[in-house]
Write a structure and sequence with these properties.
Elements (H helix, E strand, L loop, with lengths): L6 H8 L2 H4 L3 H4 L2 E2 L9 E3 L3 E8 L2 E8 L6 H14 L8 E10 L2 E9 L3 E3 H7 L4 H20 L12 E4 L4 E3 L40 H16 L24 H9 L1 H13 L10 H7 L73 H8 L30 E2 L2 E2 L2 H11 L4 H8 L3 H15 L7 H7 L52 H20 L5 H20 L1
Helix pairs in contact: 6-7, 7-9, 8-9, 12-14, 13-14, 16-17
Amino acid sequence: MVGWPTRKQYVAAIQRAAATFREPSLQRAAFQTDLLGMPALSSGQTAIVFKADVDGKPQAVRVFTTETRGGQARYRALSQHLRSNTMPSIAAARWIDDALDVEDTTYPVVVMDWVDGASLSTAIEDRLDSPDRLESLAEQWCRQIADLRAARVAHGDLQHGNVLVDNDERLRFIDLDGVWIPGIADQPPGEFGHPNYQHPDRTSGVVWGEHIDWFSALVIYVSLRALAMDPSLWRYHNGDNLIFRDEDFRGAAPIWKDLRALGGEVADLGQLLAESCNADPLSPTDLDAVLRAGTAPTATKDDASGSGYTTTTGDVWWNTSAGAGTTATPGPRPEPPRRPSGHASTPDPPRRPTGTGAPRQRATKPKEQVRAEWGDVGPHTPPPPPQQPRGPGGGGSAPGPSGPTIGGVTMTPTQWETVEAYAGGLSIDEIAAARGLSARTIKGHLRHVCRLAQVPSLNDLPAWLATHGVPITPAVNHRRVDPPRGGRSVPPPSPASGQAPANAPQPPGPPDPAVDNGGPAWAARAAGGSAAAALGIALGGGGLALIAAALVLTAIFVGIWLLAD
């Protein structure tokens, strides 16, 4: 097989677990299925997760769609590190090499404890009407991030899908493919975090180290505090973020104006995040230090501080050719260093030896200048560099959505799963139940795709998908999702004015002497059937056909009672 398996290939392998897994416990495992009887799954940027009962214990089985460079060494080092640094917030995980056969090729899997709970985005959505609970999550977030720092663990990809809120309202961290711990400080991962949470300068493996979580932790903290004050900011949520997007970190955007309008501490936090977009992503700091200081970090990129960071040799856009202690305006931002796609054997970029050479001051604009230029509403950063397409190997490729492009609309894997299920005839409630999300989140995914495709409403989405080659289950074309402005959901109009819909109940014919003999039973049945038919015509049939059916049954029981009498 060329590259890594697709979701379809993994699903086919999971369906034959006893034959395709080499790990005995997984051969015996019972994998959870969805409403269609297929293995239930959720997709991320680089992995797919299946839920299984493994020897009586619920486990998450993660398989990869791209190369996970150094994954085996990373998970083993993490397990060893956590033996002496207890972290209840991190779900226990183990790497199994050569675990699953997919079309004559063997691939690794990661098995980790299943956490019963909701993703951070779903948990936030369920608490939008409870500001106190959102504030409580924000406070707990600060404590958990401080615990990670104390244990010398950096997650590397803090985002809504990798943070769960369990049934006891505790935050839990999962999916540690990009984790930093001292034992692997010189082994950067092949992925660099979700772009809607990462610093705009984090475009390659050289931006990695012990303090790499400070920016994404700040993004999540500001989001929680802002939503606690103004839940309407959730309108910026698109199913693949909280309220910020990658492009918001690169220039002026409406979200910054909305945060400023809130005033008080939340406005100050918004300004802090905006200024942090100009800071050095390698700053040796953390969330607590940034919040206490109230200003964005201004550290240099030199490694003499002992932070353990590495960087490329030569100047990059935030460095200057001036000596220590001087600043200069940076020139145009060049394209970031590229790594050939594909393999774990790809050598790391050269790194500057620690503690050598004169420290070089990062050229940043003063806070006052940023505020003067941007009206105190957004970050001031150079335009984004051109991103590389993500290759099968994943090493050095820029992070980003990996879902399909349909009709010019590029969807994230999460959005595509929702659209695909909707096109397959499932209702919003059925999709929500199958994926463990709220109906509001599922509808948000679909409406976001509608906005991108310029489709007027969800009712028009199936037709748009069909015109672009997506198979549609016929029933989905007749399901009305968005009610009309009157507020009541109604079926499609009848073929002609005053004419009953095809599914409306019909009145019975004349009495059959062999059956009814013109007696009270037929009279009751005729009266009930006629009333039901009339009600069906008057109300338009559809969902109200149940009422008509109930009337028919009532009339039949009345007829039986009259006969018995």
